[in-house]
Specification:
Shape of chain B: globular
Order of helices and strands of chain B: EEHEEEHHHH
Strand content of chain A: 15-25%
CATH topology of the largest domain in chain B: Ubiquitin-like (UB roll)
Distance between the termini of chain B: 39 Å
CATH architecture of the largest domain in chain B: Roll
Strand order of the largest sheet of chain B: 2-1-5-3-4
Bound molecules: FE2/S2 (inorganic) cluster
Largest sheet of chain B: 5 strands, mixed
CATH superfamily of the largest domain in chain A: Aldehyde oxidase/xanthine dehydrogenase, a/b hammerhead
Strand content of chain B: 15-25%
Radius of gyration of chain A: 26 Å
Oligomer: heterodimer
Number of domains of chain B: 2
Helix content of chain A: 25-40%
Number of strands of chain B: 5
Structural class of chain B: alpha+beta
Strand order of the largest sheet of chain A: 3-7-1-14-11-12-13
CATH topology of the largest domain in chain A: Aldehyde Oxidoreductase, domain 3
Number of helices of chain A: 13
Radius of gyration of chain B: 16 Å
CATH class of the largest domain in chain B: Alpha Beta
Chain lengths: 448, 163
C-alpha cells in the first residue's frame, strides 16, 4: 500500500475536543453543580507506623457545619480491600479507613463531611487520634532483612509472594552462571529510581449524588470508570446497578487516577446524608498522599565478551510498593516482562520482587514497571560500553534483538525495529557509524 | 463577619452576588455564576488554571478576594465568545495542538490574551515570560508558545484585536 492510500498515517488529524478546550466548554467532573452539596475531608495518619490506641471524633462532630463523621465502624461491606481482588490478586490488605494500625503517614482514618469545604477541613482537624508509635522501615533491603518490623501478618518478611508461591516475578533462560564463567568481563552495578508524583493539573476527586431508587450517581475523574464502579460496589457491598458512574474528560491522569481513592467513601457519605457529597484532593494531598510511581532498586550483573556481545545478564530488583499492595504485583510482572531490555542475550536470570515499607502506597504511572527497567538497563549498557572501550551505539546495535531471535520469555521476536531506530537516531544526531553497522538490519544477524 | 452583597460586571453582564466572608473570586465565578472554564488546580496561586482578567489585568482568581472585585469588570474565557464565533487566539490553540487534557487551557488563553492586549507583537521570550505563571502537565509548552506566536502574527496581519 502506498502512502497515498493511507487515510490517516502521515496526515494531520484534528483532535476531537481541542476546540471545546480552547473555548472553555469541556466539562470536567467538578463542573456540575448541585444545590446543598456537602464536602468531605479526610483526617489522615500523622505517623508512618503506629498502633491506633484511641480515636475520638466528638470534637469533630461538634464542629460548626459538620454533618457527618465516618470511621471504619460505618463501613457496611469490606474493611480491607485490593483493587484487583476480582481477578484473583490478593490477599486484600489495605484498610478503607484505618482501624487497628496505620502503616504510612497520610493513611485515611476518619472522613468528616461538612456544609462547606472549610467546615469539613476544620472538623477533620479536630479528630483526635492517640498513637502508640512503632519502628518504621523505609528501605526495601532493610525491609527484607529479617530485622525490620513486619507491616502485616500477610508478609512476615515484608515481601510479596505471588499466588503460585513464587517470591518474585522470575525469568530463567539459559544458564547465567555458565555465561559469567565464559565471559571476558563482568560488569555489575546498582541502580535506584525515585518515587515520582504524576502531578495532574486536576487533582483526584468525585461528586456522589443520591437519586431515586437508592441509586447514586458519581461524577468522577477516574481513568477507569467501570473498574472504579465495580470496586466501589464491592467495597460497600452494593449491587453494581445501584451505582451510575459518569466519567468524562480527565484533567490529566498519567496513571495517578486509577486507585479508586475517593469514590467509595464519597458514595457512603452520600448514602448516609442523602445529599450530594464532593471529595476533592487538595494540591497538598495530591502531592503527599496520592500514590506515586514506585521507586525501584535494581542490581544488574552482565557477562560481556571482548567483541561486545553480552552473553549473560542477571537482574535482581525490588519494587517499593509502600505500605500496601495495590497494583504492585502486576507492576513487577510488567517490569520483569521488559527484561533483559531490547537485546538478545542467551543467558538471563531475573528476580523482580515487591517489597512493603512504611512509605505511601505506590501505583501506576506511564509505563508501569517499564520505566525503571529501561532506566537501569540503558545506564548499564553505557557502563558496559565504557568498560570494554566500545562505542555505546555500536554496543546496542550489536546486541539489539533481531526478528527470529528467541527472547528470554520464550517468545520468538516478530516485530523488531530497534536496529533501524538506532541507525536513524545516529543519522539525526550526526553520529558516524562504520559501514558494517550501517548495513545491519532487524532481519539479519549475520551482518554483525 | 457576615455575608455580603457585591456587584460586578462579568463578561459584560451586571451581576449581584451574595458572598460569604473570605470567598474568593474563583468561588463566585465557578460556583455561583457557574463559569466553569475557571479551573482550580491548586487553590493556592501555584498553577494559573484559574486566571481571569480583572479590569483588563491578569489575575489569579483563587487568590483574589471576591470583595476586592466589587465594581470591577471581570472577563473569563467564556467572555471571549460573545458572538459564539471562535476567536483567532483560540483558533491558534486548536491549530497548534496546544492542549491535551485541556485543564490548563482556559488559564493559558487568558494569560496569552492579557499579554497580547498590552503587547501585540511579543518576542518568543516575552511570550514565555507572559505564560510563566501557568503550568501544563500534558502538552509541553512548545505548542502553546507556538499558538501564541501564531495568534500574534494573525493579529498583525489583520490588524484585529486578539479576541
Ligand atoms: S487555582 Fe489559582 S493558581 Fe492554581
Ligand atoms: S493540557 Fe493537560 S495540563 Fe495542559
Amino acid at each position: 500500500m502506498s502512502m497515498k492510500e493511507l487515510g490517516v498515517v502521515g496526515r494531520n488529524v484534528g483532535q476531537r475536543d481541542l476546540e471545546s478546550h480552547a473555548r472553555g466548554q469541556t466539562t470536567y467532573y467538578e463542573d456540575v453543580h448541585y444545590p446543598r452539596m456537602l464536602h468531605l475531608k479526610m483526617h489522615r495518619s500523622a505517623e508512618p507506623h503506629a498502633n491506633i490506641v484511641r480515636v475520638d471524633t466528638s470534637a469533630a462532630e461538634a464542629s460548626p457545619g459538620v454533618v457527618c463523621v465516618l470511621t471504619h465502624e460505618d463501613l457496611p461491606g469490606k474493611k480491607v480491600w485490593n483493587g484487583l481482588a476480582a481477578v484473583g490478586v490478593g490477599p486484600e490488605d489495605e484498610p478503607i479507613l484505618a482501624f487497628d494500625k496505620v502503616r504510612w503517614r497520610g493513611e485515611p482514618i476518619v472522613a468528616v463531611i461538612g456544609e462547606s469545604a472549610e467546615a469539613a477541613r476544620a472538623g477533620a482537624a479536630k479528630v483526635e487520634v492517640e498513637y502508640d508509635p512503632l519502628p518504621g522501615v523505609f528501605d526495601v533491603e532493610e525491609a527484607m532483612s529479617g530485622e525490620a518490623p513486619a507491616l502485616t501478618a500477610h508478609w512476615p518478611n515484608n515481601h510479596y509472594i505471588y499466588p503460585d508461591d513464587h517470591a518474585a516475578a522470575q525469568i530463567r533462560f539459559g544458564d547465567v552462571e555458565q555465561g559469567f564463567a565464559e565471559a571476558d568481563h563482568i560488569v555489575e552495578d546498582k541502580y535506584q529510581t525515585s518515587p515520582i508524583e504524576q502531578a495532574p493539573m486536576e487533582t483526584n476527586g468525585c461528586i456522589a449524588k443520591p437519586g431515586g431508587d437508592g441509586r447514586i450517581t458519581v461524577h468522577t475523574n477516574t481513568q477507569a470508570v467501570h473498574f472504579a464502579r465495580d470496586n466501589t460496589a464491592a467495597i460497600l457491598g452494593l449491587a453494581p446497578g445501584k451505582l451510575r458512574f459518569l466519567g468524562g474528560t480527565v484533567g490529566g491522569g498519567f496513571g495517578g487516577k486509577v486507585d479508586v481513592a475517593v469514590e467509595p467513601i464519597s458514595v457512603l457519605a452520600a448514602m448516609r446524608t442523602g445529599r450530594p457529597v464532593k471529595f476533592k484532593y487538595t494540591r497538598e494531598e495530591e502531592m503527599q498522599v496520592s500514590s506515586t510511581r514506585s521507586a525501584w532498586r535494581l542490581f544488574i550483573k552482565d557477562g560481556v565478551m571482548n567483541d561486545g556481545r553480552i552473553v549473560a545478564r542477571k537482574i535482581t530488583s525490588y519494587q517499593d510498593s509502600g505500605a500496601y499492595l495495590r497494583f504492585s504485583s502486576y507492576g513487577s510482572m510488567k517490569h520483569a516482562g521488559h527484561m533483559p531490555g531490547p537485546y538478545t542475550i542467551p543467558n538471563v536470570w531475573v528476580d523482580a520482587r515487591v517489597v512493603f515499607t512504611n512509605r505511601p502506597p505506590s501505583s501506576a504511572m506511564r509505563g508501569f514497571g517499564v520505566m525503571a527497567a529501561s532506566f537501569a538497563i540503558e545506564l548499564q549498557m553505557d557502563k558496559v560500553a565504557k568498560t570494554i572501550g566500545m562505542d555505546p551505539w555500536q554496543l546496542r546495535l550489536l546486541n539489539a534483538y533481531r526478528n527470529g531471535d528467541m527472547r528470554a520469555h520464550r517468545k520468538v521476536n516478530e516485530d523488531a525495529a530497534m536496529v533501524e531506530t538506532i541507525q536513524a537516531a545516529a543519522r539525526l544526531a550526526g553520529h558516524d557509524l562504520p559501514a558494517d553497522y550501517q548495513a545491519m538490519t532487524s532481519w539479519d544477524r549475520k551482518a554483525s | 463577619m457576615e455575608d455580603k452583597l457585591i456587584r460586578l460586571t462579568v463578561n459584560g453582564r451586571d451581576e449581584a452576588v451574595i458572598i460569604q466572608p473570605l470567598a474568593t473570586l474563583q468561588d463566585v465565578l465557578r460556583d455561583t455564576l457557574e463559569l466553569t472554564a475557571v479551573k482550580s488546580g491548586c487553590g493556592q496561586g501555584g498553577c494559573g488554571s484559574c486566571s481571569v482578567l480583572v479590569d483588563g489585568e491578569l489575575r489569579l482568581s483563587c487568590l483574589t478576594l471576591a470583595e476586592r472585585a466589587e465594581g470591577a469588570e471581570v472577563t473569563t474565557l467564556e467572555g471571549l465568545n460573545a458572538t459564539n464565533a471562535i476567536v483567532p487566539l483560540q483558533q491558534a490553540f486548536v491549530e497548534n495542538y496546544a492542549a491535551q487534557c485541556g485543564y490548563c487551557t482556559a488559564g493559558m488563553v487568558m494569560a496569552a490574551k492579557a499579554l497580547l492586549d498590552r503587547n501585540p507583537a511579543p518576542s518568543r521570550d516575552e511570550i514565555v515570560e507572559g505564560l510563566s505563571g501557568n503550568l501544563c502537565r500534558c502538552t509541553g509548552f512548545a505548542p502553546i508558545v507556538r499558538a501564541v506566536q501564531q495568534a500574534a502574527q494573525a493579529l498583525s496581519d489583520t490588524g484585529e484585536e486578539a479576541s
